[in-house]
Amino acid sequence: MTRTAKENRKTKETDISVDLNIDGSGEANVSTGIGFFDHMLTALACHSGWDLSLDCKGDLKTDGHHTVEDVGIVLGQAFAGCLGDKSGIARYASFSVPMDEALATAHVDLSGRPYLVFEANFRRNIIGDLEADLIREFFYAFAVNAKITLHVRILYGENDHHKAEAMFKALAHSLRLAAMPGRAGGQILSTKGVL
178 is in which domain, residue-wise? Predict the structure, then answer.
């Protein structure tokens, strides 16, 4: 069974469409108007094995905040939609990604309880054309709308590009592993019987 979802969201600030297949081959077609953010979302799709088509038209004349946050909202909703009732998935996963001198780690619980722990310091205010503080905004919006617990952390590093990319790739691999089917009989991994 292929797990897919489509989401659309239009506000006075952004117009976003997402088509997501979490059992894909890592093909991405992403356009947000923010080049470095596109690069991060493409890395997320590639390393998670998602087929992702994402288009966002945002009020970039203001700044990138609405675009980045709203993409996190819609992509999180699409990911939640792909998981359905979460029958048979691994639920938990952790992954660390080294990128040259930087090391990032991500830990996820596809629990239905949204929470974010984010630990990262960037040297610059802007990475490429993306405001560095918006990286946390994306992770927060994604975690809340996907209804997952996410802990993501830079353990060390010097280059901001490397640190950010390692975080997105660590998230990708942890989501891929946590969403992987494998529970016998399609059981839900919870004493409550629901996630």
Answer: 4-186
Q: State both tokens at 100.
A: 């040259």
Q: How far apart are the C-alpha atoms of 167 and 40, rounded to whole Å?
A: 9
Q: Please check whether residue 38 lies inside any domain of the structure.
A: yes
Q: At what angle do helices 134-146 and 35-48 cross, to 10 degrees?
A: 40
**Sign of the alpha-carbon torsion through 148, 23, 107, 105:** negative
Helix or strand or coil: residue 122? coil
The CATH number that applies at residue 121 is 3.30.230.40
Contacts of 184 (CB under 8 A, 6+ apart): none
Note the pTM of the prediction, 2 decimals: 0.95
Number of domains in the chain: 1
Domain assignment present for 145: yes
The answer to the question of residue 195 being in a domain is: no
How far lies 175's CA from each of 29, 90, 120, in Å?
A: 19, 10, 19
pLDDT digits (tens, 9 = 90+) for 19-36: 999 999 999 999 999 999
pLDDT per residue as tens digits for the range 91-105? 999 999 999 999 999
- Residue 95 pairs in a beta bridge with 106
